[in-house]
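Input/output pair, single chain:
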Amino acid sequence: MSDQYIEKIHLLNFKGFQNWTLENLDSGMNILIGDNDTGKSSVLLAIDLVLSANTGKVETVGLERLINRQAVQAFLKNKERRFEDLPRMEVDIYLSELGRHEFAGEYNIERTLACGMCLICEPKTELVEEISELIALENPAFPYEYYTVEIRTFSGMSITPYKKPLQHLDIDNTKISNDYASRVYVQTLFRANVSDTSKHQLKYGYRRIKEDFAREQFADINEELEEDFGFALKSGTKANLETDLTIARSGLDIENLGVGHQCFIRTKFALSKKSNIDVVLLEEPENHLSHTNMRRLIEEIRETSQSQVFVATHSSLVSTRLDLRHAIMLTSFENDPLRLNDLPKDTAEYFMKAPSNSVLEYVLSPKSLLVEGDAEYILMEELFMKSTGNNLAGSGIEVISVGGISFPRYLDIGKLLGIRTAVVTDNDGDVKTNCIDRYEDYTEAENIEIYCDPDNARSTFEICMYQDNTAICDALFAEGRKTLSVQEYMLKNKSKVAFELVKNKSGDIDVPDYINNAITWLKN
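Output:
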């Protein structure tokens, strides 16, 4: 693992963030999870813009897309608009100790002595009179054009791409087919993995070959033109070795491969142990990948040992396989991020090995109803409607089938994040052992409740459904029974029975009391 990494990020009026901090970052893996529009991509963009040390990249994105809209609107609505009140945008990237004094100082939002880099966008002080006249107008437009962009060290020294302390790579699998993104990706890897001496030699040699080719191959053609102009090959910064570079697999340009293969190869190449990339930014690595290739890619990411990695994902598989203890949950642009680093080790390792699950659905839901199996899941929408008179969709309650043995694993997460969680479970013939004693460490939390039928004889969901809906179940399932009773048939065909009940009698079935109680508690 590199000694150089990002320890903390502080955002001021950047995108949706008005004043927000992300600290105690891991020198290895950092997994950003959250719903849409909670800032995952914005955090990656902030890191990319600062580490690029390229003000032109900021201007290409556009200040109108970067400076916080709320801060802009608040300024414009103010009747007494003053130059000194114009919003200032800043992104501070705190770095691990680099041993380089030029990166240490107090030139940051918090004015604390630290090592790092900052991106600053603020109105040009030398144009104070012009700007003051503009903002004094009735219904003025915001003066983005009068802002200056600087990237500095915390000592206040200007920094350029040639003096940046960390090599980083941004891999956005949502834009993998973008030609510019592809070119930047290849150039970044080339610059990180080839020495300056070799780069100069390669560029010079490449230009010589182009000149020789043009002189030898175009000579006869140009002579026949009988003019003072002729054919030539492009030269200069937009036509050189780096612009013509690509990455090949078995001699085939990866841009001619499928998008999924491109995602996989680019990420694997960037995370290679021979790569000299300090920070890797991965935007939705699951995009364009089959389930099998996503698993392979996850293993590649897990095994990386030299880079600090930031992953923004919507995938339960990605977040669990990369260890939930590295997860950072973004809930909104205003709230502090939530961490899962205190998740018990055995629970984190369980999810790393468990089959496909709905962990992110649980993590992102304000209220969850955890059920044991497919039968409960299939029927729960109808039971919810019967209990409340409302649709489950739009209630803010997520129903998740987790399997009985997994309940405690989900509840470990629920305790840390404060997710309001109702567990609907079978008592399996022993309420005290299976439903009270087993969950005593969790029911101390105000946000967790366990619900089961209090009668040991009503040991499973199917028995409760049959006894509360005997006439309906007999009418549906009694015909053709020779050896099994209807209740026994329901126990042996749980999912099939649930589907038949939904399809034929959804509006008539009665809700078992313990499920009704769970729904009522969640709604309150």
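The first helix runs from residue 40 to 52. The chain has a mean pLDDT of 86.
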